[in-house]
Amino acid sequence: MPVAIITGASRGLGRALATELADRGWDLVLDGRNAQALRTAARELRAASEEPRAAGGEPPSAAGAARTHVPPHTDANARSHIRDIPGDVTDPAHRAELVAAALALGGVDLLVNNASALGAEPLVPLAQLPEAGLREALETNVTAPFALVRAVLPALRAAGGAVLNVSSDAAVEAYPTWGGYGASKAALDHLSAVLAEEEPGIRVWWVDPGELRTELYAAAVPDDADFGGRTPPEQVAPEFLRLLDRKAPSGRYVAEPQETR
Length: 261
Prior knowledge:
By secondary structure, this protein is of the alpha/beta class. It is built from seven helices and seven strands, in the order βαβαβαβαβαβααβ. Helix 1 links the parallel strand 1 and strand 2 (27-32).
């Protein structure tokens, strides 16, 4: 079965993407800073993958929901192998453990760089942003994804695999207080674009998921009066998977939420 590494997979968009891939029978290596939250997410994913499948390959809990189709190279009835490895992606030893776990499962077909740091919680203007905060955002949002890509690149080349870097509209628009975070995501976008040019044998996608109803966004803007109306990550995760389905060319994409029935 294909293998994916997903960082920041304990909650939010990372967990939603892990759910989508587990439903398809992918083997997963999951990362998260919060060990308890990551263990809970992995346990629930394992339990869901062991449920009897309804017609069409969906678990009973997903039958009738809006889902992407299962691509030909996956087995809808397969049970996912799921490794949860808590840690910080800025730690080289932790990154090495993630890569080793994926290779032990058979390789790397997809790397999802989703783990992010804001640099300040809540966000603050640049004049108030500590240098340490900017450094944290750059280390988590740029250096760690770069290092993971380098580590798995031989496996990705062998598999004709893909890199999915989670971007932000703050990478291309100037929003007050989003300067440090936006700068880090802009750097990630540019690294992604160059990687796509240098590695035509793999696909590289940098995707803006929109403003999601996640703990990260709540930490960034805790007084957002519209938070309850933000898009749940489960509604955009299928859009990310459609890039896989149609073998989309490398490039920058904006995920459009899909209403669940």
